[in-house]
Amino acid sequence: MFLRPQLKALLRDGSRSAEQHDARNLQRSWRKFAAFAYVAEQYGYRYDGLSSLSPKGSPNPYFAFRRLPDAPERAARAAQLCPTALQGGQLPGMRPGGSRLRPLAETQGAVDLLHARIMVDYSRTHRRRGLMALLVMPVAMLIPLSQTGFSAPSLLVCAAIWLVFDGLWMAGLYIARRRYAKYSRVLQGAGVDWPPASSLT
């Protein structure tokens, strides 16, 4: 559903020689988004990590794709191999028919490594995202409290709600850290140094 406009946006940036293309995961699957990242590379844009376009802590962040030096040649080759890609046909490196973001056997390994890089980057967004919600929540609770009054029972209910969300954030943070460690090990095992030091500053 979202693949065609996302691919069109990528090719539009390619035709304009844009140095960076920014995209969100609109595929409802991180593995499919990794497959899209592989397709983007065939058209001349390599996955480059989290984009500065996203607000810090965004639940659906933008990811950056950096234009490669041989982007025009890559795009021309991909267009020649898959001339009906924009009309719903086969995509470069993907299986024909059915779901268009199913990697071929020979490209599965590259897609898996892209998936690991994306998951490492996405895992890094959870801490700030949760903190933003926890900071905003007490301010939001002032609205109903101003209507009901700042009584002890009302304050206890608000505190209980905040603690529940705090517990959910802590659980999410634990899961994000485990996911970060898991996919970092995958990348280290493949000899991939990720994330770049510049993206951690």
Please characterize this protein's 3D structure.
The protein is 57% helix and 7% strand. 26% of the residues are buried. A three-stranded antiparallel β-sheet has the order 1-3-2. It has helices at residues 3-15, 30-42, 71-81, 108-123, 126-148, 152-189, and strands at residues 20-23, 45-50, 63-67. Helix 2 (30-42) crosses helix 4, helix 4 runs antiparallel to helix 6 (152-189) and helix 5 runs antiparallel to helix 6 (152-189). The protein has 201 residues and is mostly helical.
Write a compact overview of the structure shown.
By secondary structure, the protein is mainly alpha-helical. It has helices at 3-15, 30-42, 71-81, 108-123, 126-148, 152-189; strands at residues 20-23, 45-50, 63-67.
Strand order of the largest sheet: 1-3-2
Number of beta-strand segments: 3
Mean pLDDT: 87
Indicate the percent of residues in helices: 55-70%
Describe the global form: elongated
Uncertain runs are: none
Number of helical stretches of at least 4 residues: 6
Summing up helix and strand content along with how strands pair, one would put the structural category as mainly alpha
Order of helices and strands: HEHEEHHHH
**Spatial gap, N to C terminus:** 36 Å
SSE blueprint and pairings:
Blueprint: H1 3-15, E1 20-23, H2 30-42, E2 45-50, E3 63-67, H3 71-81, H4 108-123, H5 126-148, H6 152-189
Antiparallel strand pairs: 1-3, 2-3
Task: Provide the descriptors you would attach to this structure in a database record.
6 helices, 57% helix, 3 strands, 201 residues, 3-stranded antiparallel β-sheet, mainly alpha
